[in-house]
């Protein structure tokens, strides 16, 4: 299954405008797909809440995953919580606070807390 992952730079001076252009381009491409051509979308968390909501319900989209894109875990979770139907596909935000010099117990506790917070944000 194709995974489409167009990442928008979170530091872009016109991030919202770039997201508008991206949404239009994705919509056009999705509408041109056949019924037997499902895709997964991995999109940077948007500036506007539920900006990609139409894709959550699109018949060609299996899942809409949220990229943390460089936001801190707290910020990424807050943004994800406001984007209904998106689920986390965080790498940078997941590993935030993990360090090689942690004990196994510290590492496990930090990872468990990170996962729990991301799962909670993905439930909207």
From TrEMBL:
SUPFAM superfamilies: Aldolase
Domain of life, source organism: Bacteria
InterPro entries in alphabetical order: Aldolase_TIM
Name of the protein described by the UniProt record: Fructose-bisphosphate aldolase
Species per Swiss-Prot/TrEMBL record: Brevibacterium pityocampae
